[in-house]
From TrEMBL:
Domain of life from the UniProt record: Bacteria
UniProt xrefs under InterPro entries: PP2C, PPM-type-like_dom_sf, PPM-type_phosphatase-like_dom
Name this protein carries in UniProt: Stp1/IreP family PP2C-type Ser/Thr phosphatase
Species for this entry: Saccharibacillus alkalitolerans
PPM-type phosphatase domain location: 4-245
Alphabetized Pfam families for the sequence: PP2C_2
Amino acid sequence: MIHTVHATHIGNVRSINEDLSWVGRIKPGGYTLGIVADGMGGHLAGDTASRLTVETIVADLSGLEPGLSLEACEAALSDAILHANEVVYRQGESDIRYHNMGTTVVAVLLSGAEGIIGHIGDSRAYKVDSDGIERLTDDHTLVNELLKSGQISPQEAGSHPRRNVLTRALGTDAEVKVDLGRVALNRGEALILCSDGLSNFVAEAEMMRTVLKPGAALEDRAHKLVRMALNSGGDDNITVALFENGRAGQDAATKEWVQ
């Protein structure tokens, strides 16, 4: 049984929460879907982009038939994300208020304990188990490109003045590439989806220790991750979704704290 929870917070500085998450079961197919989107584009635009993205992906996948292969799930998730790109881009082109709006997205579609992760931008997915924490996504950012090419060090990347510049986002261009990968959760293992409001402020080792904390309810662990980001500065919106195989938790819960 995959247990899930998601939580979001506006943070300590921002006036609008442009993050949006959705986690739930898709009926009648029995799949588990999770999405985190981190919108950008200023007042109205960022939260519109993330909302349209989540709504489109959920609507497109809600009718999935039971028993699809992982290959079919991968195609369905990719198509839904690409459709969301079309919806957001078209809205941005047709209304000056939303011009150049966009969003990151990271999504998982699980059939039982196996599934597909799709992402665009710098929202991330991590797999956590007793052996450690593994990042499953590769940031689409200028700083990550500089890091991979050896032009800057990991230490320089953490404080680079252009670390928030994306090289790929959903909705900013008519066409976009979706990165796709597979994931499987054995008993006791967990998956984290998060916006950079968490990953930029909480070290991966701290995420791992929090998610694996014995005896803690899944909801409490999600809320602790949010509090840790807030206590470390909280300069951005913070969103996290957790998926766990085999420990006690709530099947679905939504907590949105607004200040």
